[in-house]
Specification:
By secondary structure, the chain is of the alpha+beta class. The chain has four helices and two strands. The chain has a two-stranded parallel sheet. The chain is elongated. It starts with a helix and ends with a helix. One of its GO terms (cellular component) is membrane. GO terms for molecular function: ceramide glucosyltransferase activity. Keywords: Glycosyltransferase, Membrane, Transferase, Transmembrane, Transmembrane helix.
Length: 92
């Protein structure tokens, strides 16, 4: 009902986080720390031309709360493994 409309209206106005907070601009750093923890599970298989930049764009998310990324590969033999390993090192 009303909550879904508020979220959709917020998204139309450019607030992609309207499902979390009505006005993302009101979230000061201290308020952002109270946002829920988000775990992003990224199953990876193989490696393509744009994978590295796509994975990197996820790591620089604008989400202000606690955030963790879980990169999952089937095995260390997967072509994605050395690339995502380097990506993780680049962000440490």
């Amino acid at each position: 009902g009303k909550e879904l409309k508020r979220i959709k209206d917020g998204e139309k106005d450019g607030n992609s986080f309207s499902f979390l907070y009505p006005n993302i601009n009101d979230l000061e750093h201290s308020a952002q720390e109270r946002l829920p923890k988000v775990s992003v599970v990224m199953p990876l298989k193989g490696f393509g031309e744009h994978n590295y930049s796509n994975w990197k764009s996820q790591l620089v998310s604008l989400y202000g709360g606690p955030l963790e990324f879980l990169f999952v590969v089937e095995s260390t033999d997967d072509p994605a493994f050395p690339v995502v390993s380097q990506l993780i090192l680049d962000f440490k």
